[in-house]
Amino acid sequence: MKKIIALIIAIVTVFALAACTTTDKKDVTMDNVKIGVICLHDENSTYDANFINAVKAVQAKLGLKDEQVVIRTGVDESDACYKAAADMADSGCDIVFADSFGHESYMVQAAKEFPNVEFCHATGVSAKVQNIKNFHNAFASIYEGRFLAGIAAGMKLNEMISSGKITAEQAKIGYVGAHPYAEVISGYTSFFLGARYICPSATMKVVYTNSWFDIAKEKESAESLIKDGCVLISQHADSEGAPKACQAAGVPNIAYNVDTTHLGPDTAIISSKINWEPYFELIINAVVKGEAIPTDYCGDFSTGSVALTKLNDKAAAPGTAEKIAEIEGKLKSGEIKVFATDSFKVKGETLSEYKADVDGDYKGETNVIHDGFFDESNAKDFRSAPYFDIIIDGITVPES
Amino acid sequence: MKKERKTREPLVHITKRATIPLWKAILVRVVAILIALVISAVVVVVFTHKNPVEVLRAMFNGNFGSARKVLFLLQRTAMLLCISLAVTPAFRMKFWNIGAEGQVLMGALAAAACMFYFGKTKMPNWLLLILMFAASLIFGMLWAIIPAIFKAAWNTNETLFTLMMNYVAMQIIQICVSIWAPNGSGVMGHINPTTYKGWLPDVFGQKYLINIIFVTILTGILFVYLTFSKHGYEISVVGESENTARYIGINVKKVILRTMAVSGLICGFAGFLLVAGENHTITKDLAGGMGFTAIMVSWLAKFNPLIMMGVSFLLSFLHLGGVQVAQDCRLNESIPEIITGIILFFIIGCEFFTRYKLNFRSAGKEEAK
Hints:
CATH architecture of the largest domain in chain B: Orthogonal Bundle
Mean pLDDT of chain B: 88
Largest sheet of chain A: 7 strands, mixed
CATH topology of the largest domain in chain B: ABC transporter involved in vitamin B12 uptake, BtuC
Oligomer: heterodimer
Strand content of chain A: 15-25%
Strand order of the largest sheet of chain A: 12-10-9-8-6-7-17
Largest interface: A-B, 53 and 45 residues
Shape of chain B: globular
Strand order of the largest sheet of chain B: 1-2
Radius of gyration of chain A: 23 Å
Distance between the termini of chain A: 55 Å
CATH class of the largest domain in chain B: Mainly Alpha
Low-confidence stretches of chain B: none
CATH topology of the largest domain in chain A: Rossmann fold
CATH architecture of the largest domain in chain A: 3-Layer(aba) Sandwich
């Protein structure tokens, strides 16, 4: 009985306290600006580690105190995200940032409830459609970074072919993907196109783990691909599973988001990554200066958002660094388009039109092919999050 | 020659206590929790080099730092309590149902399916909510009653059976999500985010409050059902001895099936609350392991629904406090689990001292005289 009374008292307290909440807007300066970062997993996931490291680096750069940068890890893609966001808004955060695709609708919910707080969501798709002033999406043209990582893969394949280790036909890449989702498909396709740009006989086999973070499954997937004759492995899944399996089997590996040289000192070649520092800096500065945050932001080479980790000379083929620099220059100048329609075929056909699902309703409605290329991550006309979800010839995926 | 026979008496020997006064029983537990809190603080301090007082303050702030946090605490307590209530009737019967997670998920899935398919129609919201409610209860019950039928008919091992059913439920959810959200991302996000169809309404302007109220009422009902009803008595007898139950004319199979149906119904109800009153989506992680934590809650409370309120409150307090500690001290999500683990270890450990007595050597001699 006492506990029931205690419960009732607690509920009454909730109302009493709720009545006192005020929504005064403070004068935001660099000394009191506060940002909350919501992460799906913790730093053991390479994906989340990439965000955590970036926000910490920006904190150091801007001279913010620990209290001004609140990081919460392990926030599920459920009401837990709304709770974390609302709690951060309550505790005085001027910006709340969430890092996983599934956080989106919960961030939108919080954005509607707290109009004075800016809500920024990475990899999301709906900011342009939602039309909520304080809700923003962000991504980067990481397909260009993936293409460069693919160049390193192609160089390695060519080295294996010329040394007689494999024949040209055996240049098969294995890819451990998380979900059969546009972000993953766009990632491996651009990677594959990069590899094939250098090594024309390259093919690729993809397997999905159906999870963003599953150490055992990622390890097993990499092992099964290696057994299946794949001579180089890459992955878009967030654990150490695949890089470690590659090191154990002595198979070269190309990673995503963080430097994995410590996991595969002899096999990790390079990683492409989205550098989130420019975006964190941008949103913090915008709030301090009272400027608007872009509704949909797509970082690229020019903003420093698309980056490569340090090349591991022990694993990479000779001349890789020079080749990457050369291609990077051509991407920047527009001489090479990653998704040029003459560089890939779908069921034997060259695409001249493709209706992609840009507004996130699961139905393709917008043609994104023009001037001879698939216009990926165009935040101005379409959106920043990838929408390339086509399986091209040369890549085999599991039957669905 | 005189033979001196002397038995070597150990320093400590253990005897079973017949009874323990209530104040002592409470004292033992309070001391255990305090020691556990101190050790948790030490662990955090070792990792962070922060002041232990600060750590404990973060623990407290995480639960009572704001009105909203109190609400989160009560909401979490309510959900954990609801699932703990669900497993209790079966446990009283010594039917080891560890399939609560799956039963809750199936209830949640049924509610989500109704939201997804009928949310687009012109069905009024009250009717949709009733439909979701009914569907959740039925699915939760079905998921519980399948292992019960096998147990009653062929005496299969219910522990393994219910455990496996959890994973089956998770896979079914994965399949449904991949059909309902065909972009391959494996997540749905809010269902009906603009129409709010199938969302339980806010009560007094507060989210989650309706869940808290429902579970409070349910606790009362279940307490009465287990303690004062004929069904409750039958459950206890079957739990004590099936042969006795048979001897006094209780239909054991019927009681097993009926009790598991009750367990499943309440699990389904918890699933309904998780979807309609909290998350408004479906994922395989929606129950978040609470189906397993609930087993511990039920046991620690000795299957008493009123004590379960306190235990769920304590575990929720520890979890949310741990989350705050992790955030304030920049530790990761493992910290809440470590703290909960330490405290549970001590609570379960202290049960030993409530059941047994340590007799030291001198005390033993006195007794001998």
